[in-house]
Amino acid sequence: MNVLIVYAHPEEKSFNAAMKNIAQKVLESQGHQVQISDLYKMNFKAVADRSDFLGVLDSDFFNYIKEQFHASKTQTFAKDIEDEQNKIRWADFILFQFPLWWTDAPAILKGWFDRVFAYKFAYGPGRYEEGLLKGKKAMLSITTGGGPEEYGEDARKGPIMERLFSIHHEKLFYCGMDVLTPFVAWGPQGKTPEERERLLCDYAKRMEELESIPLLRLSLVSKK
Amino acid sequence: MNVLIVYAHPEEKSFNAAMKNIAQKVLESQGHQVQISDLYKMNFKAVADRSDFLGVLDSDFFNYIKEQFHASKTQTFAKDIEDEQNKIRWADFILFQFPLWWTDAPAILKGWFDRVFAYKFAYGPGRYEEGLLKGKKAMLSITTGGGPEEYGEDARKGPIMERLFSIHHEKLFYCGMDVLTPFVAWGPQGKTPEERERLLCDYAKRMEELESIPLLRLSLVSKK
């Protein structure tokens, strides 16, 4: 299987980096091919703007989606976008590794979706079951600041799955991907070195059993 | 009242720009002071990294929140962050104008939160009712691609208020702000010029009646 790991953390000694490294190690030891988009190391451009296109459809009025449509037809995406799209074309499985900042992806990863998941490349006109990345799988692997007690029906932040809906349902499934149950590393910063080690072992085990991770049921509406 | 408009759209002839302009016009005509952070025009840096700090607490291990804490104590934030924080200190009311991209803020605005809403500036240790921006008001003014039929209990994207929870509850209210009912301009791109004009009039009226816009009830958990 071809695996793309999209990784968004600025510190290479971080727990997120350790998770990225262990996933790569386990997956390669199982014979999978792994590529990594290390967004911070690549100095990935987060902001969607005119320079994302080599050609221009309408120089008088900049409409990002219309320019994406044009670039898809004429193959005139900026090189960094095209490179990411080629990795996605190659990948059977995309694994996202990032810390939850403000209950959401860091801006560098949000920008990756804004720029790379382009109209007529990732979706359009087909969406959801007919999204253009149909047949590919995706999974989130995240770290949180707080513990699970902060997330839940009666907790202030609400259930973690609701916080991840915008990525699971409205980005990955929107483009037709099958989404696996996420791996959530709760508050690694507040743990002891032994606890962190155990968490990494749990994650390695999850990666070893990748084929048996259940898919999320994202077929209908937000509540399903 | 001092009003900061944080505006995130790359096209100055866009509907978002028109909304930003009309809000400024109405608010100034009522005697309010208005400042605008036009994130695209400012070429605002979206990605949180080491260069956000003039000093450094730990050069061996980069922990963004710990560096924010240090920068708050020593006043060593990068100038663009300090400038935004000063605008927030000055403001009684912050109005956010942006298009919903992937049911979320564009990366340039997500990065504004990542970088500007720093630990010990916007929150910490107090959060929610005790957040450090307590006493200030905030409101989202957004445009969508689709219509309201795409958002709702039985619609695929789920209720719009759930999609906005991550900003309303987990960024604005998290930092202690009172959050006003948002203004949602549904799918302006699919509308006729007359309909768009009417939508702008509705928005102008909303701005005229700012004092009477109800606050969201964000006091407890995600469902409230």
Summarize this structure as a short list of keywords or feature phrases.
homodimer, 224 residues, alpha/beta, 6-stranded parallel sheet, 7 helices, 6 strands, 34% helix, disordered C terminus
- Helical residue percent band of chain A: 25-40%
The residue-averaged pLDDT of chain A reads 95
Strand segment count of chain A = 6
Low-pLDDT regions of chain A: 220-224
> How large is the share of residues in beta strands of chain A?
5-15%
The Cα radius of gyration of chain A reads 18 Å
Query: What is the H-and-E element order of chain A?
Result: EHEHHEHEHHEEH
- Taking the alpha carbons of the first and last residues of chain A, their distance comes to 29 Å
- Biggest beta sheet summary of chain A: 6 strands, parallel
The total count of helices of chain A amounts to 7
Question: What is the molecular shape of chain A?
Answer: globular
Backbone structural class of chain A: alpha/beta
Please identify the oligomeric state: homodimer
